[in-house]
Amino acid sequence: MTENETTASHFRVAVIGSGFSGIGMAARLKRAGLKSLVLLERAHDVGGTWRDNTFPGAACDVPSHLYSLSFRLNPGWSRTFSGQEEIHAYLRQVAEEEDVYRHVRFGHSVSGAYWEPEANRWRIECEGRPTVTAQFVISACGALADPSVPDIPGLSDFTGTVFHSARWDHSQDLTGRNVAVIGTGASAIQFVPQIQPKVGRLDLYQRTPPWVIPKHDRNVTRLEKWLFHNVPGAQQVFRKNIYWGRESYVLGFVKYPALMKGVAALAKSHLRRQVADPELREKLVPDFVPGCKRLLLSNDYYPSLDQPNVDVITDGVEKVREKSIVAADGTEREVDTIIFGTGFHVTDMPAAKMVHDAEGLSIWDRWGEDLEALKGTTVSGYPNLFVLAGPNTGPGHTSHVFFLEAQMRYVMSALRFAARNGVDRLDALPEAQKRYASRMQHKTRNSVWVTGGCDSWYLNSKGRNVTLWPGFSFEYALQTLRFDPHNYRIRKEAPRRVRGGPAAGAAGPAADRTAQDAGAPQAPGTPRAAEPEEVGA
Known about the structure:
The protein has about 525 residues and is α/β, with parallel strands linked by helices. The protein is globular. Strands 1, 2, 3, 4, 5, 6, 17 and 18 form an 8-stranded mixed β-sheet that branches. Strands 7-16-8-9-12 form a 5-stranded parallel β-sheet, with no helix packed on it. Strands 13-14-15 form a 3-stranded antiparallel β-sheet, with no helix packed on it. It has helices at about 5, 20-30, 50, 85-95, 190-195, 220-230, 235-245, 250-255, 260-275, 280-285, 300-305, 350-355, 365, 400-420, 430-445, 450, 475-480, 515-520, and strands spanning about 10-15, 35-40, 105, 110-115, 120-125, 130-140, 160-165, 180, 200-205, 210-215, 295, 310-315, 315-320, 325, 330-335, 335-340, 355, 385, 425-430, 490, 510-515. The protein has 18 helices and 21 strands. It has 2 domains: about 5-45 and about 100-145 and about 345-430 and about 465-535, 3-Layer(bba) Sandwich (FAD/NAD(P)-binding domain); about 155-210 and about 260-340, 3-Layer(bba) Sandwich (FAD/NAD(P)-binding domain), CATH 3.50.50.60.
């Protein structure tokens, strides 16, 4: 164990989580010279989503060369769409090479973070572990961290095996068993083709069919790998081509939803080529506009359903009995194993219920489903807190890592501003947050997510988009390029006293004020060469 692990209890910055966002944020902080840093990780390895989701066929649906950190490109990707093991290995390699591991405290499951205004710090409680305090907290818990399992009557009475795809039970041999899969989202379309040849019977409970289009996945050629390793800029050019191609999706998602008719035609053609049974094809055609729910990519999902041991059930689940599932039409089917492919808590993200203000109220207590955050990153009333993958930072069309890196740059700019200007408290102004949230809803009003005729996890129960960014990703990157102190109430640090003499500077407690009151200069732009004082020691 390091000294960090065993003795230190207070830090300049505490990061909760060690997935893409936690590792990337820690790497940037260390490059800026920060030493007083801790990452609190509930598991016993880094990797987040890509550590936990080990189901058969798990892979990314964003091209590998775009789904990676811009400052840690990987020229050795084996496929154009990488699998779970390769992405997890990449994250572990980044953590190793950026010297992040030494700052991670594994087995630290955060049960709550509490703002202490008198001490001007966050108190972080971890289950069965000593308390940690920090001046700044960065939530890197991720949007796809905690699985969502529906509350089905009788589920607790089931005597067989039950697990969620995000917590795959590898001890269970599914060979010859009667398996029920509940859910047909992004995970299910990957693991269903993998288990279908093994199981005795597979009952797929489909509430709503997804739109599925071809996945142009292939091995990365030896020539491409050579170019990426040996020709400066070659991988960047490849990455930018993918990026701009993905940006074009926004035209159909947000600007002109009528363009999605072309996507519907492509998906229907894909379905006709791969499924021979006309009755099954009819079950698999969605009744909403493509993009209203996440577009899925697969070349083997449809063929796996058109097999004699598979039954697609569209009546929904009414209840579960000891050894069977009863559908809404009363049909009862015996099963040995139930696998949930029902996604994650997104609009009710766990981090919102974990973080508490000075009055003891969590973000969820204050906002409920109508989560708001200034630029998706800071929440009024919760000073010195930054939330990565916060409200309206999810992409419907491109790499989430791009958005995470935009947020990381914003956080770094904020911390530099604080360090350079002697500021010890940053709190988003409520009116600035409200204006921003209203703008998000205004930009979303005509999008396919709102008008497309589906019920998706993008929207909360009120039909409000609190998940996705309603525009081009480069627009988000531009708006988070620099910290905007005029949107914050800031507090200058109390002057330090010289040993044996009066205070160095004006005496008196630190005072809350807006950035204009404090005479704060414009936030810095492109970072200088890393210096320890840039973000604090």
